[in-house]
Design a protein that fits this description.
By secondary structure, the chain is an alpha/beta fold. 34% of the residues lie in helices and 23% in strands. The protein is built from ten helices and eight strands. Strands 1, 2, 3, 4, 5, 6, 7 and 8 form an eight-stranded mixed β-sheet that branches. Helix 8 (192-199) runs antiparallel to helix 10. The protein is elongated and about 55 Å long.
Length: 248
Amino acid sequence: MSGFKDHFSSASDRYAAYRPDYPAPLFAWLAGQCAEHDIAWDCATGSGQAALGLAPHFRQVVATDASAEQIRHASAHPAIDYRVAPAEASSLADRSIDLVTVSQAAHWFDLPRFYAEVARMLKPGGVLALWGYGRMVLPGEMDAPFQHFYAETVGPYWPPERALIDDGYRSLDFPFAEIEAPAFQIEVAWTLPRLIAYLSTWSAVKRFQDARGHDPLPALMAELAPAWGDADTARPLQWPLFLRVGRR
């Protein structure tokens, strides 16, 4: 996983608009694991979803991403300092950071180099948290076609690193003193067009479009529509989060 694999810059505007936010209790729990609340580093911040969640709990959040385009679309906040930098070379000061977070991105990293960077700039007793989410489960009879779309229609177009998401990061090397985390989940209420807009941010959908010359999402929307009912009716959807959290 060496080098910066940029699957998202070309869709930065959609990523910022359509990716779900993370639950507030996650950030409160993470802050509670830290002895001090001076600086948090949100690495591979994308458009800043996790950085915004951290901001109420720390004096400053440094949010970095290797993609300048992602940073350009990030949501501004007075406590967040956005910077363009790779995960493996943050330029942050030694022993200066209380918490490092990586949401839905650690599978892209050169992990040995990233872990060395974390060990360099975390304070003694500082915390590293990696998390992600896989495929949501749609209610009722809608889940079978959705599973087929995920695994079969666009399945061949997922980058190989996606297997680590499907595994819930259980197979990732994690050389930190592990902290058991409670269960968290993302909860949203989305219309069918809003769900399809989110799916348009999947790297596999973009790669399918590039390879096949057409968009697979209208067919999926048509398949889901009869069971969804009124497309503008918001339905509750959930993704369980998986976490690896450890202390330096």
